[in-house]
Amino acid sequence: MNMSRPDGVRRRTPAVNQANGQNNAEADKCRDDDKKDDIDDKETRMTLMEEVLLLGLKEKEGYTSFWNDCISSGLRGCILVELGLRGRIDLESAGMRRKSLLMRKVIVKNDAPVGDVILDEALKHIKETSPPDTLQNWVDYLSGETWNPLKLRYQLRNVRERLAKGLVEKGILTTEKQNFLLFDMTTHPLVDQNVKDKLIKRVQDSVLSKWANDIHRMERRQLSLLMLSHASDVLENAFNPLSDEDYEMAMRRVRDLLDMDFEAECAKSQSCDIMWGVFAAFVK
């Protein structure tokens, strides 16, 4: 039996676990306070990228909509936020002239490997770039949406397929082959409906029963999931089962989030600059 791990998943070595567990003040600035949201404490915890992909995945067909042209860049935004929440990257200081979020450069705070191949690949690219580049440019570079041929080497390839393989290893998806007349395609149908149901319920509750009028009382990872699901055009999938009244309420609160002054929120104490910067890049 072939027991090799699928591409896109890396074994958690003691060195990686130690790096993930570093508890210094700088890393804490962008780390969720709630320990149950620490994705390193359980093997089956999902990253932001995996959650967004799962929301956008057709359950029986095992692939995302062919008409969704937003999910590619949205997943790259997830990668940058994930690295920020784990204390690996941040934005440079705004300085005396108070540079806008989109004009501030992405810097590496901690280059220790995360233990996820996609995250580590992105971190390596950011680390090796000199001088540092802006957050908006990094979204374009990682997704391949740039006119600069010198930056095409930064494109992260086959991200959806690699994320799906990771979810297969966690027992959430499976792997099949489907014939589309002219070609065969590898698909990853859902096999653990309970996991997706819990994810959808969590997204719904965050804008309904657990809505916090003070946005800074919302867990950063949950706020990021809402914003990046919207940017990836998959949030509607979580809201479709709602009643008309709840759907209207949920969408109104999402619009409130999109209308926030990200510059002002970022200026508040203990903010995660990279998170607000990614939001600004997609909502601009």
Can you tell me about this structure?
The protein is mainly alpha-helical and 284 residues long. Helices cover 46% and strands 5% of the residues. The strands form two sheets. Strands 1-2 form a two-stranded antiparallel ribbon. It has a two-stranded antiparallel ribbon with strand order 3-4. The longest helix is centred in the first third of the chain and has 15 residues, at 71-85.
Question: Could you give a short description of this structure?
Answer:
This protein has helices spanning about 15-20, 25-30, 50-55, 70-85, 115-130, 135-145, 160-170, 195-205, 220-230, 235-240, 245-260, 260-265, 275-284, and strands spanning about 90, 105-110, 175-180, 185.
Features:
single chain, yeast vps74-n-term truncation variant fold, mainly alpha, globular, two-stranded antiparallel sheet, 284 residues, disordered N terminus, 13 helices
